[in-house]
Amino acid sequence: MFARSVYxxxxxxKRSLLSxxxxxxxxxxxxxxxxxxxxAAVLGVGGVGYYFMNSSTEAKIEKKAKxxxxxxxxxxxxxxxxxxxxxxxxxLKESEIINSNTKRLVFQLPEGDMVxxxxxxxxxxxxxxxxxxxxxxxxxxxxxxEDSKGFVELIVKKYPGGPMSTHLHDMVPGQRLxxxxxxxxxxxxxxxxxxIALIAGGTxxxxxxxxxxxIFNNPDDKTKVTLIFGNLTEEDILLKxxxxxxxxxxxxxxxxxxxxxxxxxxxxxxxxxxxKDLLKTVLPEPKEANIKVxxxxxxxxxxxxxxxxxxPQNQGELSGILKELGYTEDQVYKF
Length: 335
What we know:
Layout: H1 2-18, H2 31-42, H3 45-54, H4 58-73, E1 77-78, E2 88-99, E3 102-108, E4 114-115, E5 122-128, E6 136-140, E7 151-157, H5 163-170, E8 176-184, E9 195-201, H6 205-216, E10 224-231, H7 240-249, E11 254-260, E12 270-271, H8 276-282, E13 291-296, H9 299-305, H10 320-324, E14 332-334
Helix pairs in contact: 1-2, 1-4, 2-4
């Protein structure tokens, strides 16, 4: 009986060690030996009882496996180092249509065993130079895990008249785009806050998803998360499957509330814009200890909810619904 239990528990570890996703054109040098050694270290005699009898989640096993792997191979190489590095040209590997105006784009890092080098929370700056015109620069937050090797993944919504989003949607695999980063945003560490609230509209979900992934990928992080996500239609809800999976796995710590401007007849969520009544009902109260509210979305959402940022370095004054509900500038961060 014990042997069968150990075998079943070992499967997630085996997958995490042997099935690393990569878009490398060549295999990583020495990769298989390093993985085998790290796997042996995790599954060693002294570790079996602890990891298979006391671990409560697969995340703990995977985290330990990564730690052991890093001990053997050293930290992974980093694609984006910031500072004076300049822009890095990346090859578009995959382009997938998500809905009528949104695509998933996968760009290959310079080497297959590289990670992006992004931290939570941070983004990448993209650059495109239209013929005979000035460069177009736009920041994007990748939606893949920060420790993913060989690629970065973007979810891009095409906006009418948007030069960068139009260019990205027109790209085909084999073409290249310039990236620079990381662009630091809000430094989040495990258990930095007791409870965070995320108010997002449209593609403003991507930096929020970065925070969510970091929290729920870390078995030592016990932060509670409340998401309020506004969209035009049900089709526009990005990452809904991934968010639902997290909510089903951590129902005591993650709650998601959706609102649609144009809901279908069988819609069970909220309708219209994100309102004061909705936020008052679902957000942690301003008087609660150690909370943080994050806001990201189109200009109209900022205006109604929190007031706009002045610049990347200047959060601007807090206004709108959050101020009316009693939140302070220290409790709010605008992406």
